[in-house]
What we know:
alpha+beta; 2 helices
Amino acid sequence: MEERLAVISCIxxxxxxxxxVNEKFHLQSQSIIARLGVPCREYGVSVxxxxxxxxxxxxxxxxxxxxxxxxxxxxxxxxxxxxx
Length: 84
């Protein structure tokens, strides 16, 4: 399968779901290149974005798994990974 790069962004509106989301990120840590988390207390949400690599199936499965967590909205963008 073709390797891809992806950006996955999550908006977490349920504070009790943060632990579950972090656990899922930990389980995929070998594929995560970078991560940025921002607590937006003023709006009552947390925003997390990650850059990761993997196959289209792996990335889509991970994004879908994150989206199943209560109070988590997920969007992802993928592009082919071309090493230079």
